[in-house]
Amino acid sequence: MNAPNTKPPIALWNAHGARFSRGVSLIEILITVLILAIGLLGLAGLQATSLRNNQGAYVRTQATYLAYEITDAMRANITVARAGGYNIGYGASPAGSGIALADLTAWRNRVSTILPVGESQITQVGTTFTISVRWDDSRGVEAAQEFQVVTQL
Known about the structure:
- By secondary structure, the protein is an alpha+beta fold.
- The protein has 3 helices and 3 strands, in the order αααβββ.
- The chain has a domain at 60-152.
- It has helices at 26-76, 78-82, 98-114; strands at residues 119-125, 128-136, 144-152.
- It has a 3-stranded antiparallel beta sheet with strand order 1-2-3, with helices on one face.
- The model has no long low-confidence stretch (mean pLDDT 87).
């Protein structure tokens, strides 16, 4: 009678006669999962920081664009600008008439619409103008941000 074709279990022994472990233990798997979870949490934090910084950079770019936009409008209407027709403080309503009033009203609306809690002002000393745009960047490191352009007309 022939014996069934079975193989005896393979046991590995070291020099001292103790049996080697084969495979991976549960504790090793748990440690691997823990290390992987910590790495993924770090990656998620990095992604959140990146999104916050990108949003801040986008808003700063918009503020720069808005400041240069009113500067171009003032250069197009230089006589009225030098006469003080574009001077306006934070929170003040545009005054005057004509093109300067239309420019300031439209610009102020864009500043308050595009920037979060956006405000603006234009001050003049002689022929030097300072255009200031500020906004709330509560997602970033500092809440209050301001961008200024100083130009000669």
